[in-house]
Write a structure and sequence with these properties.
The protein is of the alpha+beta class. The protein contains 10 helices and 11 strands.
């Protein structure tokens, strides 16, 4: 919180403080390019600006500027990132935390392989083109004929993913629907654990299919704002560089202005009861997967 390294962690890790660099804010200029590199590259005194970790850069690129705002990045992994005030109470899920910029902090939860699970079932279906895969999977009625897919996560202590309720009557389309619903339930669990509000910004290549994003909105019960920015991490890094170079006076204000929403997906109440029961069953199975009664 005070902008310094954590003394207790350094002591426990046996790392001397003097070998570590000074901590600086995202978007802060640390100096200028060395003269020999300027000469070698034919450049002037270019400022060297502090960037951010990939998730913070993506959150800035997604326009998160105020505490409480939340974004979900969906690719191979799924990351739920929320801006919080310093000293915000730590939820029981113990998310990763750090500085966001502008004096705010972040907390985020992640799941390593939701996109990988979706790709796995798509490959079992013969590597269908993505539009056809989503069309077939989402043509199955909610609930996937009683199938429940529970992804495995880092917090699961090495447990395997589960496909519960599988019978001889189930086919690949039902399994695909179950995988999508399991991934969406994982997203809802992350949002609930962080206490996220009703609106969430959505980024990443795994969120380009409209029907799939609508299903996620229905299952999470959140209003999802999909952004017209395929590379939010690059945008956030560019904005940080702009502040450090003196072009942009305020990083988070620039992030707010640079964000463009492409489409909003509002949860439909038509299937709310079905999805609520499915989510309750998902949480029951998740407890069993982790070895809890």
């Amino acid at each position: 919180p005070d902008g310094n390294w954590w003394p207790a962690a350094l002591r426990d890790a046996g790392v001397p403080r003097e070998i570590l660099p000074t901590l600086r804010e995202t978007g802060e200029a640390a100096g200028v390019l060395r003269p020999d590199w300027q000469a070698a590259w034919g450049l002037g005194p270019v400022p060297v600006v502090l960037g951010a970790n990939d998730q913070t850069a993506a959150a800035i690129g997604a326009g998160l500027y105020d505490p409480g705002q939340t974004a979900m990045g969906f690719g191979t992994a799924m990351v739920t990132y929320q801006v919080v005030r310093p000293g915000h109470p730590v939820p029981p899920s113990r998310p990763l935390r750090g500085p966001h910029g502008g004096g705010w902090h972040y907390q985020f939860l992640w799941s390593a392989a939701p996109g990988g699970y979706i790709d796995w079932i798509r490959n079992l279906m013969g590597g269908l083109p993505w539009p056809e895969f989503y069309r077939r999977a989402l043509a199955v009625e909610p609930g996937a004929g009683g199938l429940r897919f529970v992804p495995a996560e880092a917090a699961d202590g090495g447990a395997s993913a589960w496909m519960a309720g599988l019978g001889l009557s189930h086919g690949l389309d039902q399994m695909a629907r179950a995988v999508l619903e399991g991934v969406a339930c994982t997203a809802r669990a992350q949002l609930d654990q962080l206490g996220a509000g009703r609106t969430v910004r959505l980024t990443g290549g795994g969120a380009t299919n409209d029907a799939w994003v609508q299903t996620m909105a229905d299952i999470t019960g959140r209003r999802l704002e999909r952004l017209d920015q395929p590379q939010t991490g690059l945008l956030g890094t560019a904005l940080a560089a702009g502040q450090g170079a003196g072009i942009l006076p305020d990083l988070l204000a620039a992030a707010r202005q640079a964000t463009r929403k492409i489409r909003v997906f509002t949860p439909s109440g038509r299937r709310a009861a079905v999805y609520r029961r499915g989510y309750e069953r998902f949480l029951e199975l998740k407890c069993r997967q982790r070895g809890h009664p």
